[in-house]
């Protein structure tokens, strides 16, 4: 796990003419992809293509343009074998480096080893492999810190009064899901007034989130709060609340307090509509830029930064107007 370590379409042929020398900015010194007609081509291997990944893709493309890098994208569609095959093809067709969000956190080691054996460095981002020492560099959000911040927000919202909380959980076979849950539970553990009445493993899917909230509302119609670990589930949560007339703004009596993570377009709009109390917005622009910059450093044999975690940017309905420029989902 990351905290333990540091605290499909056809593949387009890769046309590249070699590595160019370069220098410049970045999180710990940086690289440009090339000079003149020279271009470095980098393969990007997604675990699956969801709304959040689309946001990451847009910022990767922006960073690639700034750094003079060509990107080739592949989507594993939640299939570890497909991801392995796609990475193998990227290597055989000449990619100089690979950015990866692993689907299977253990199985990806074989693919990283194969890339390294071919002299192709691998950088992971957003979701870490089981051991970050396998990759040249990793950057992602800080799932534990975000979960803890969410828990602390619920403690403040409850203000010592009895508080029934539903915890939606992400996938419990990866660090993001596990640590976002652990951070929340650690933060509320000392608040005896807060009772987690339901923990719902969702595998990040809105369908399971919807069913979990519906069931919780049936058994606890007066519940006080819902923890949403990914904002791709907000529409499902709102639908369940609206069905029982519990979808209220933060200013209305009977509002169900909601804290969510991501800072995606739906989270941005929910803040503007005053339907959620807090969003912890992932710093996608910094994450993607750092991932690509450090991969270029590795490709060129330059110093590479240590793995890093980026805590979410806290945004409330009262601060969204001021902080919107910092929230990636508000830029679309």
How would you explain this protein's 3D organization?
The chain is α/β, with parallel strands linked by helices and 332 residues long. It has two domains: 2-135 and 285-304, Rossmann fold (3-Layer(aba) Sandwich); 143-281, 3-Layer(aba) Sandwich (Rossmann fold), CATH 3.40.50. It has helices at residues 2-6, 51-67, 80-92, 108-117, 143-158, 175-188, 206-219, 234-243, 265-272, 284-299, 320-323; strands at residues 40-46, 69-75, 97-100, 122-125, 137-141, 163-169, 194-201, 225-228, 257-262, 278-281, 308-310, 313-315. It has a six-stranded parallel β-sheet, with helices on both faces. A six-stranded mixed β-sheet has the order 7-6-8-9-10-12, sandwiched between helices. β1, α2 (51-67) and β2 form a beta-alpha-beta unit. α2 packs across α10 (284-299).
Give a brief outline of the structure.
By secondary structure, this protein is an alpha/beta fold.
Reconstruct the topology from this structure.
Elements (H helix, E strand, L loop, with lengths): L1 H5 L33 E7 L4 H17 L1 E7 L4 H13 L4 E4 L7 H10 L4 E4 L11 E5 L1 H16 L4 E7 L5 H14 L5 E8 L4 H14 L5 E4 L5 H10 L13 E6 L2 H8 L5 E4 L2 H16 L8 E3 L2 E3 L4 H4 L9
Helix pairs in contact: 2-10, 3-4, 5-6, 7-8
